[in-house]
Amino acid sequence: MPARVIVLAGPSGAGKSRLAERLALPVLRLDDFYKSEGDPTLPLITEGPNAGIVDWDHPDSWLPEDAMTALHALCRDGRAQVPAYDISRSGRVGWHELSLDGQDLFLAEGIFAQDIVADCRDEGILAAAYCVTQHPVRTFWRRLTRDLREHRKPPLVLLRRGWQLMRDQGRVVADAVAKGCEQVTPDQAYAGVQRLRRVGSRP
User: What is the pTM of this model?
Assistant: First the structure.
């Protein structure tokens, strides 16, 4: 039976990765499909205190076609070669095989996840699509502490970026909902996926 995908979208720091760990399903991490720093097509921030640096929150900073190729392989074959991406180094550091190990449901999560929902639905491989959200202040704090702990970028950049993302959270959520995601808390998403697992991946 072909596998189907559960899309987890939402603001950075909203709890998508923690939810994926809690669900214990195979995960295609869409953030691993970022472009590498130095790619001339990367978008830049044009105004404000971070002007001139790469805008990693812009959809032109990742490779959706590569992500969809891997996603199709997982649905069709149950395995795919996917990149390993080091955010602290802003680049790919290798490749590995992701296997579904016989599962007919898997997760695809990342800050651009909402951009694959329509294609997945049109192709009949979408099981569900959620936009995971929490209070903006809580999301800001969780994102900042995670990014500092993982040394993702210089602290001042993380602080400035986090403040802007907090102010922009409402727009991000509205965009995901407009693209077909259901707005939920992490607990609500967990319950929804558990229902899917009980009845199977087909509607």
Answer: 0.81
